[in-house]
Design brief:
Length: 184
Amino acid sequence: MDKDYWKKAYRDMWGDSSKREIVLARWIEQLTGRQVEIIGLGAGSSEFISGSAEEHGHDKGDADLHIIDTNLYIEVTGPLTTKVPASDPLWFRPDKFNNAVKHARLNHDTFFAHHCPAENLWRVIHIDQPLIDRLLCHEFPVIHPRIRGNVETYVEVPAEDSCVQPLEFLACYLLEHIPQPAEG
């Protein structure tokens, strides 16, 4: 299989994807006064980068954003179409969950920020130990939908599940757990 198959399949959507990563990074900076670095391979860019994450010094499924001088990481995701209503389940690539679980053991505090363009709605999932336990018990189904002619694999989380929180949850968490930067 072509190692760039999935990158090529979604190449025309990278611009929209990078815009929402930048929007969320700027929102966090305004909220917390902390700098946010865009760290994921290709995050914040529409540039085509051939090859695997590993070939570029990343782990497969690395988060998109990191709040500098903290252990907080954020994966930005969601459909890039207005055809998916907010009431539909949220879909996440399994490698994103696997990466978050692996890095939780390294003291990374990870959130998934899911944007639904149909309603311009942001929701978040905190990858904390209770959620990790649920993932390891396979509480969320793995599905294989056909999208744009391709069979894909996702972990499906019901929109009404207790782990799905409004963006305000992330705001409260950030303000509570991230000290304001020292005045310089």
